[in-house]
UniProtKB/TrEMBL annotation:
UniProt domain Exonuclease: residue ranges: 25-147
Keywords: Exonuclease, Hydrolase, Nuclease
Protein name, as recorded: DNA polymerase III subunit epsilon
InterPro entries reported in the protein's UniProt record: Ribonucl_H, RNaseH-like_sf, RNaseH_sf
Biological process terms in GO annotation: DNA metabolic process
Family matches, as CDD domains: DEDDh (cd06127)
The organism's place on the tree of life at top rank: Bacteria
Keyword Hydrolase appears in the UniProt entry: yes
GO MF terms, alphabetically ordered: exonuclease activity; nucleic acid binding
Length: 152
């Protein structure tokens, strides 16, 4: 993906308008160990029926590895997301956490943690004026929002 800076500038983060976004993968993933996840279902709204016909991570592994091979991978909330893709991300050049970077820009200090408070992706997207075309917590929409961030 190449990007040019354009549009709104907020603090030290810039909203960029990508010239090209190559869609490498847009899929739900069917868990192999769990059949139900009532607690986790509340946040992304993904129910067991939604993933009944989706591929498993094993079935997607080669495509993921090909997509991240020797690449800079930017994940919003990388400590959480990367935990699901440890093996696949080993071939990437670098993994960065956009959530940690944005926390400093947003500037809400937490005495309890001794660092800046992490903000949800929706907060970061709103901060730069991103308009959601689809539901959050779907890979394609979350990825589009994260793609628009470039720290200057």
């Amino acid at each position: 993906m190449s990007a040019r800076t354009r549009s709104s500038r907020s603090g030290s983060w810039t909203r960029t308008a990508p010239d090209v976004i190559d869609l490498l993968l847009d899929s739900l993933v069917r868990p192999e160990r769990h059949r139900r996840w009532p607690g986790a279902e509340a946040i992304p709204g993904i129910a067991p029926d939604d993933v009944a016909d989706a591929p498993t991570l094993d079935e997607l592994r080669r495509r993921i590895i090909a997509a991240v091979y020797d690449a800079l991978v930017v994940i919003y909330n990388a400590p959480f997301g990367a935990g699901f893709l440890r093996v696949e991300l080993e071939v990437s050049a670098e993994v960065r956490c956009a959530m940690r970077e944005f926390a400093e820009v947003f500037g809400e200090w937490s005495d309890w943690h001794g660092s800046y408070r992490w903000q949800k992706l929706h907060v970061a997207a709103t901060y730069i004026g991103f308009d959601w075309d689809g539901a959050s917590h779907r890979a394609i929409n979350d990825c589009q929002a994260t793609c628009l961030f470039r720290r200057t």
